[in-house]
């Protein structure tokens, strides 16, 4: 008996731009929406469910829905969970479709941090006072890279992981990115290249950090009847999970991500295990975060990610777990500093057989897309989806 | 709150119930919230117990001691490096902070550290930490 998929991803579009100084963020949202709907064989007039997060008109979903002019809208969801919002939206949209709240759900992301001169990984952040932890964070001049540098050091301390092992993650991403004509970084990195790049947040180096790009992406989910009528390969939403990993009021285990919860729920709903996954998109804001999620998703035991990623185990055609075959956030794209949607998009490409031939996985029937939002230790969110290709 | 000396600090003014923490900080004292119902402490401070859900919270003077749980050296192009850290307080909670009065080369995970308050640009004093060897009190002979 086949799995009763509540909804199907019928359209996926990643904006080819990585630098858009002459376009507004709103226009990028619109271009992504049109691109994903055209991919599905639908139009904005078919959309009756809209999903977006903080990057869309200050997080006020009705304003972006107004701008896009969605006359048939009857379901709106502005869930904001940082960079993983769009992975969570896939689950929310599947739920809404299954409940009859909408038939054609549109998810959009766009932003222009590169044009705005942002350097979010390293710049000192002013944290708004309304965030409850802010009074106890603002004085320390933390950066996102700094937080993840601390995690990398702790992982090395507890498990003996080396920076050379983490570097394999970047090397693998770059091997894939060389085939992606839109990737910001297309050059192939060697271990030496990674280990000699400048220190950003010791022990993390620049090559351990993702790129900063303008751009965006969009997804279209539809109910099963519509999916059958469209002329695209059917990609079913088989499982999804999400969570907020709190800082445990000071008892936080810094090395356990929300993937332990969101992944478990997604696999349970799908009735599958990590060994069923043929391709994995795992959000790569920093090399250390890929390592932690591989452990928490169950691809390797806790503490063993360093050995797991070494020697090309994440490379398509080489390793056991082909990962981020578009080059990921480390090399290709990280629009609006939010990597969630591009993770789902590359998983859809793999399931459809539309990835670059050099990195396409043969008979790819089960794929995972998973990622974090916000920062570990401060409202860290996480979402995972398990997707299936139907013949 | 409106007439308080710290009223101009938005990070203090936003949370009137946490004023005792900042008043103690201004005196160079680290206080922690402790639940009167279950006896447990937590970080960062809030007036409801995250463990037993009681609303009976008191402020308790902490030892100011802890151990370095992990750290990083943030390198900046146009500003001095920062030593960002998580410190495990002697009372239990893990706390995001910054290490001061130390060379990065001398830092080791697990080393003892003690609290040191420094003024912020907004007005309040915030808890930073320094290696215990730099603590003048630690070097002094024990009080009899």
Q: How large, in whole angstroms, is the Cα Rg of chain A?
A: 19 Å
Q: What would the average pLDDT of chain A be, to the nearest integer?
A: 96
Question: Largest chain-chain contact?
Answer: A-B, 40 and 44 residues
Multimerization state:
heterodimer
The CATH superfamily of the largest domain in chain A bears the name: Thiolase/Chalcone synthase
Protein structure class of chain A: alpha/beta
CATH domain fold name of chain B: OB fold (Dihydrolipoamide Acetyltransferase, E2P)
Characterization of the model:
The complex is a heterodimer of chains A (391) and B (144). In chain A, a hairpin with a 2-residue loop joins strand 10 (366-375) and strand 11. The relative contact order of chain A is 0.19. Chain A starts with 7 loop residues before the first strand and ends with a strand. Chain A has 2 domains: 8-115 and 214-236, Thiolase/Chalcone synthase (Peroxisomal Thiolase, Chain A, domain 1), CATH 3.40.47.10; 140-211 and 239-390, 3-Layer(aba) Sandwich (Peroxisomal Thiolase, Chain A, domain 1), CATH 3.40.47. Chain A is an alpha/beta fold. Chain A is built from 12 helices and 11 strands. Chain A has helices at 25-40, 61-68, 85-98, 144-159, 163-177, 191-195, 224-229, 259-270, 287-297, 305-309, 328-332, 340-352, and strands at 8-14, 49-51, 75-77, 104-111, 199-202, 204-205, 215-222, 234-245, 279-282, 366-375, 378-390. In chain A, the strands form 2 sheets. Chain A has a 9-stranded mixed β-sheet with strand order 3-2-4-7-1-8-11-10-9, with helices on both faces. Chain A has a two-stranded antiparallel ribbon with strand order 5-6. With 144 residues, chain B is mainly beta. Chain B has one domain (10-139): OB fold (Dihydrolipoamide Acetyltransferase, E2P) (Beta Barrel), CATH 2.40.50.840. Helix content of chain B is 11%, strand content 33%. Chain B has helices spanning 10-13, 19-26, 136-139; strands at residues 31-35, 57-61, 65-74, 82-89, 94-98, 112-119, 125-131. In chain B, the strands form 2 sheets. In chain B, strands 5-4-3-6-7 form a 5-stranded antiparallel β-sheet. Chain B has a two-stranded antiparallel sheet with strand order 1-2. The longest helix of chain B is centred in the first third of the chain and has 8 residues, at 19-26. At the A-B interface, helix 4 and strand 5 of A face helix 1, strand 3, strand 4 and strand 5 of B. Strand 5 (199-202) of chain A pairs antiparallel with strand 3 (65-74) of chain B, so a sheet runs across the interface.
